Amino acid sequence: MTTILGLSGSLRSRSFNTALLTAAAEMMPAEIQLEITTIQGIPLYNEDVESMEGEPKSVTVLKRQISDADGLLISTPEYNHSIPGVAKNAIDWLSRPLSDIPRIFGARPIAIMGAAMSNFGTIQAQRAWLPVLKALGAQVWTGGRLLVSEAHTVFDTSGNLVNTQVEEELRVFIEGFANHVANN
Q1: Using one digit for the tens of pLDDT, what is the confidence trace for 125-136?
Q2: With CB atoms 3.0 to 4.6 Å apart as the test, which of 8, 97, 140, 161 could cross-link to 18 if both were Cys?
Q3: Per the confidence metrics, is the pTM higher than 0.85?
């Protein structure tokens, strides 16, 4: 079975991006599984901590989850027109030591989607992710784009996707990326 790891770039318990991943998991083709994970528990990157204490367990676990997956789906919020600091921090940890980069990111199919309460969705955050992922050697899928705007109107209070237009856009996006991963 093909496995895609869904990574929410938010720490919020009622995150729209985690809810977007949950909706995506329900739309996966039968032969593809989406496992959702979090960046919760990853400490701020500090080279002193790395050299004195080694890699935190939360980073080791996330590295294993990514390297075991056939693809990575990042669902990113947008903070101040860019990548959320906590999400970038997680990537900084994942890229250490440098020798781990090929195993974690090298030629791994990665897609980026996101949900935000603004009118523009996560267009700036998604653009900001591109040079970061390129520097890591990731294979960023560009066969589709999903920018969920006004997320507070797209999900109900329980985190269920209730907007039929966004649901269809998500379905097309997920099917495209899932097919790309399965055929890669």
Answers
A1: 999 999 999 999
A2: 8
A3: yes
